[in-house]
């Protein structure tokens, strides 16, 4: 069966056909890697092949066709209005959890800028019981997805959302112990060279960040001090070769660098300052 799916995807020039075929069998036929290896019979073969044909025909992200994807062990609803959760973003969440654990307060207030599907906000709240998270996003459609994810994970008392262009909808005197963000960070040149499956199907507004790719970092760093409690942390996910430039922005605005965290590929993926 897997060979049939791989052929369908290969014939349509879909990237990583073998890996995607295994995901299709896992998600639609509930087969383990061992089941696939042993060629276990599939009861819903027509459904599985229809899905593979749809993927081949549209070229859309597998996650969009499924309607969900996994992040830190939880299943999140995803749509074309939100970025698909990516493994490297776990480093951002883990950094926020580490800092939240060091803040000696009954309730640690966290702001997630550009919350998208809500995966960052949800996993911080789920893994740090002392936190309350406000997620903001300029897209109402993304916020609707985020709200569905919060409800599904039963975090409605710990995570709330607000439509906001970065800080625009924050209230006077509203303060946070930690601000986290995985903002748009793709430069115009890099955007033009993105994989077709990303450029054609994921929201441009969640990817593109001006000529340099640093526009949102600049805006957030400039405005963050007004909304951070004394000693509070500002934590970013960043793109390839951006960490050093962000550190310079921290220094320019009198933040003290706390951490630079590399991902599994050795890329400086998360920067933290206070």
TrEMBL record:
It comes from the Bacteria. GO terms for molecular function: nucleic acid binding; peptide chain release factor N(5)-glutamine methyltransferase activity. Residues 105-251 form the Methyltransferase domain. PROSITE patterns: N6_MTASE (PS00092). Residues 3-67 form the Release factor glutamine methyltransferase N-terminal domain. NCBIfam families: hemK_fam, RF_mod_PrmC. This is Peptide chain release factor N(5)-glutamine methyltransferase. The lineage of its organism: Bacteria, Candidatus Galligastranaerophilus.
